[in-house]
Amino acid sequence: MIQELKNNYGHLFEDALLNEINQVGTFKEVPEGFKMMEIGDYVKAMPLLVSGAIKILREDNDGDELLLYFLEKGDTCAMTLTCCVAQTKSKIRAIAETDAKLIMIPIQQMEEWSEKYKSWRHFVFESYHNRLNEMLETIDSIAFLKMDERLLKYLVEKVRISKDNTIHITHQDIAYELHTSRVVISRLLKKLETLGKIELNRNYILMKDI
Fold first, then answer.
1. pLDDT tens digits, 57-74
2. CA 95 and chain centroid, separation
3. Minimal CA–CA distance to 47: which of 89, 87, 107?
4. Which of 73, 120, 137, 166 is in Cβ range 3.0-4.6 Å of 113 for a Cys bridge?
5. Are residues 23 and 39 in the same domain?
């Protein structure tokens, strides 16, 4: 695990902190689609993402989801940090977007390392800053972009995360994550296909013009 840490966090953390993470952290591999955290769960550990991607979602009172942002290599989740510090229940759902590798850090180390290591404090504050900007971008998209623009932006982000122009997802799943109806998504996907931006297939979407 120490080599994984050095490869992904060596530019952020000093050797002493890397060694402590190696001693107390738990290495974890999760498959695509694995639910890592559910709304209402108590957070007992903070994830450091080594590889892959995780999507963070919110849910309304009717059970409909909204995609907030993606976590990628070198990231951690601001929502998790907040729950760790306040010892409150999770307000988000975390699902592996791709196969992922993580190092889980016990929450009791959070405060100790914040006092002990300047690099850790900087990492935590930078994580809050980045996730806040991503949530503001999500809010801006909902408030200012038309649904077809949101859909195209969503598909482009999917391709960027997976590094694959082929997106294996149902129209219903897209509708869930963009908080709209399957009928709307199907209509807009057909429009994007007519414009030559995508190709619709039975079980996948091929991005043609990114």
1. 988 777 778 888 898 888
2. 8
3. 107
4. 120
5. yes
Residues 69, 158 contacting (CB under 8 angstroms):
no
pLDDT in tens, 65-119: 888 889 888 888 766 777 666 667 888 899 999 999 999 988 888 878 888 999 9
133 and 172 fall within a common domain: no
- Give the whole-angstrom CA distance, residue 119 versus residue 130: 16
| Alpha-carbon dihedral angle through residues 27, 31, 32, 35, given to the nearest 10 degrees | -70
CATH number for the domain spanning 34: value is: 2.60.120.10
Report the mean per-residue pLDDT for the chain.
87
What's the CA gap between 202 and 65, in Å, rounded? 24
SS3 (DSSP) at 49? strand
Q: What is the pTM of this model?
A: 0.77
Report the run of H or E that residue 75 belongs to, with start and end.
none
* Count of C-beta atoms within a 10 Å radius of residue 22: 16
Contacts of 182 (CB under 8 A, 6+ apart): 171, 172, 175
Sheet hosting strand 65-71, strand order edge to edge: 35-37, 93-96, 54-59, 65-71
Cα–Cα distance for residue pair 192/169, rounded to 1 Å:
16
pLDDT, mean of residues 21-43:
91
Q: Between residues 209 and 175, which one has the greater pLDDT?
A: 175
Do 94 and 38 have their domain in common? yes
In the prediction, which pLDDT does 84 show?
A: 65
Query: CA-to-CA distance for 53 and 4, rounded, in angstroms?
Result: 16
